[in-house]
Specification:
The chain is mainly beta and 179 residues long. It has a single domain (3-175), classed as Sandwich (Protocatechuate 3,4-Dioxygenase, subunit A). 9% of the residues lie in helices and 26% in strands. The strands form 2 sheets. Strands 1, 4, 7, 8 and 9 form a 5-stranded mixed β-sheet that branches. It is globular.
């Protein structure tokens, strides 16, 4: 990653503060694993924005940190994101709504994308793989609070719901187990 890219990633980031109680909920317990589903593709492009120029879908920014079980930041962790488009479809040939990035020196990341659509059988969600340098890959999914389809989705897990604030801003801190 170039220093220009790194400065943009860190300098433009918006971080929701964690309260003491939120830290207590996250620390010590690794983030729950979930299936990658049928639409994962390796070798996604490196980028922090997945927004497609023609999309009119609501914008979403997700920020957070990658932490170890002791709540220490995991620098340079790889985060690979992918999700459905505004119609509920996945791009299986190209890289629409797919991309990877590296956390900064404090384990922080920032993803700029859209709110993905619901599609039959699933609630609104974002797939992610998180890998600490030299460590085991965590594959999971992030969910949106208050979605009507959450209780009907057999994969939905409440502990994977993002903290949302106004203006399309969400946050989630990943806890990864040691290698």
């Amino acid at each position: 990653m170039t220093s220009i890219y790194r400065r943009r990633l860190v300098g433009a980031a918006f971080f929701l503060p964690l309260t003491h109680g939120a830290w207590a909920e996250v620390c010590g317990k690794p983030t729950a694993r979930q299936t990658e589903g049928p639409f994962f593709k390796p070798e996604s492009p490196q980028r922090i924005t997945l927004i497609e120029p023609a999309s009119r879908a609501p914008r979403l920014t997700v920020t957070g940190q990658v932490l170890d079980r002791d709540c220490k930041p995991v620098a340079n962790a790889l985060l690979d994101f992918w999700h459905a488009d505004e119609n509920g479809d996945y791009d299986t040939r190209g890289s629409r709504y797919r991309g990877h990035q590296f956390a900064d020196g404090e384990g922080r990341y920032r993803l700029e994308t859209i709110v993905p659509a619901v599609y039959p059988g699933r609630t609104r969600h974002i797939h992610v793989k998180v890998q600490p340098p030299g460590g085991r890959i965590l594959t999971t999914q992030l969910y949106f609070p208050g979605e009507p389809e959450n209780p009907r989705d057999g994969l939905f897990r409440a502990e994977l719901v993002m903290r949302m604030s106004g203006g399309g801003e969400g946050a989630y801190d990943f806890v990864v187990a040691p290698a």
